[in-house]
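Project standup — Tuesday

K.O.: blocked on the structure for the chain from last sprint. Re-posting the sequence here as requested.
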Amino acid sequence: VKYFKEHYQLDMKVVTKPVNDKDNADCPTTGAPSALTEIKEGDVELVINISEGTTRKDEITSGYLIRRAAVDFGVGLITNNKCAVWLVKAIEGGFEKFKAKSISEFYSLHKY
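H.V.: unblocked you, prediction finished:
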C-alpha cells in the first residue's frame, strides 16, 4: 500500500477480512477498518479479491462476502490473478500513455 501511494499516488488502505455479513467493526489490534464497511460506505472503487486456493470455510466465506458486497454496491471487482497482473502492468506503464476506449471501439479495430 505504501509503495503505490508514494509512487503512483493511489489512495489505498489496508482493511480486514469480514468474519460474517454483520462484521463492520475495526480490527482491535491494528485499527484497520472492515472491508465490508469501506465498500458499503462508498470508500472503495476497486476490489481485487483473488482466492488463496484454500478450502477453509472462513476463507471462502470472507471472499464471498467481499465479492458480494462489491457487486451489490457497484464496485469494480477483479477475481482473476492474470487480470490483476495486467492491471498493475497497465498502471506501471503510466496513465498518460493510455487512452480509454469503449468496448465497441475495441471491436471496430479488430475485424474478424
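K.O.: great, moving the ticket to review. DSSP finds five helices and two strands in the chain. The chain has a mean pLDDT of 80.
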